[in-house]
Amino acid sequence: MAINHLSLTGKIALITGASSGLGRQFA
To answer: How far apart are CA 4 and CA 26, in angstroms?
Structure first.
């Protein structure tokens, strides 16, 4: 369960980071 939780959190972090990164580039 811990691994799944970390995996899910990691995915959200990557998606959030990618979204903010793209927003900064196009802004």
So the answer is: 33
Please write the tens of the pLDDT for every residue from 1-27. Answer: 566 667 888 888 888 888 887 777 765
Q: What is the C-alpha separation between 14 and 9, in angstroms, rounded?
A: 9
**Whole-structure pTM value:** 0.48
Q: Please write down the HEC assignment for all residues of 1-27.
A: CHHHHHHHHHHHHHHHHHHHHHHHHHC
Rg, Å, the chain Cα set: 12
